[in-house]
Structures
1.
Amino acid sequence: MLMTKEKRSAIRAPRGWAISLLNEAGAIRECEEHGWAQDRADPHARERALDLARHAPPTGISAEVAVAEVLDVLNSIGDTCPECPPDEG
């Protein structure tokens, strides 16, 4: 039986781009143990990411939509990994 892959929705591509952009700008990092994205709370890195989104959005996406996607990703993650135990200090 021939199986076909389901086409990815258009919404996933901009989100993946935004995550990659935030990672490259240093605004987010990945939990080394669990892989969850974590906000680094670095205002300079956030601004770099937003500037890149404004001036170099992906093909077919406006700068406004690119910035909105970056902000949406930032608003959807926290600064701690949900699987790591809380620091007791």
2.
Amino acid sequence: MKRIYLDYASLTPIDPRVIREMKKYSSSKFANPSSLYKEGVAAKKALAEGRQKVADYINSHSDEIIFTAGGTEANSLAIEGVIRAAVHSGVKSPHIIISSIEHSSIIEVANKLEKFGCEGIKCEVTRLSVDKNGVISLDELKKSIKANTVLVSIMMVNNEIGSVQPIKEIAKIVRNARKSFGTDLNYPLLHTDAAQALFEDINMDNLGVDLLTLDGGKVYGPRGIGVLYVKREVLSNKLIEPIILGGGQEFGLRSGTENIPAIMGFGKALELANTNSRINTNTTDNESARLGEFRSIFIEGLMQIRPEIIVNGNLNSGPTQSPHILNISIPGIDNEFFLFQLDAKGVTCSTKSSCLRDEEDSYVLKSMSADSKTSLRFSFGRFTKVRDIKKTLRVISKLLSK
């Protein structure tokens, strides 16, 4: 049985071209880039090349790219690193603003800082609500920013429902707040988790964020490699501190020997994404449009099977909805049992974020007043075919008719 993979939001397959790139740097240029001999110099050159490829993808400077062991670590560095720096600079009771549907790597760090503080200094956390489409209220954000607000962290694309937040508008609100509190203040900073934002326009010249997270496992790259973009001014003003100490690699922000094969694979994956996946208004046959069409076909087919099926999030792909994620609720089913039935028929999907513990319900769907007990997430990608969508619909129809 040929299996159908519809869980790209959880993890993307590694593109064969990325694997070939990684093999080159696993067998030949394998040395420690901090070494002074010939092989180390070659590895250091490769590190610089990989860093530049990531910088080119988001239109930033290469010295603003900090390599980590994945998106989770990048998010932790963004949140805890900024809070540590704020506490050490004398900020009393630093305030963090997040949304109620952030990735668990943001939620859990914020929870820890709220409960235990940072070096004895209590932290305050505000969690913004979302509407039925999973989008925050800009008015609520404005009202939530205070004089002690150090960081706002709002993810660009939600990993469970695919909602897209208006990051440029959020950035404008944060900048205006920073000005209103005095020109000598550097806060609040703005961070966005862009791990799922493969189909969004990420351009640091006009996005307006101070920190941004990327993850290799979400862009057809290797696992265990991520990036935190840190704006030059944040680095120069020492507004972020490391959370992993050691040899001082990655401009002093992330110690540990750099993983050159993974870095070069990540760079190659983003290079491919620039040509294959990004929004291009001059091209109708692009990946975003292709996956958006699949999503529409899937929704239309589901409604024909059972009209009471609910789409969790925006019905149509567009400015507030990523084309590659579809979250639905099927009234009357047990979603875990239904997932196993689909699995037995060769179709993979998920019931919630794979980063949640087995016993946890989806807090994302709860935030939207959706039923997480009957929900399934289907997510599409580079190797998805229209025949996969149609076969999955036939399987769902047979299972629901029993």
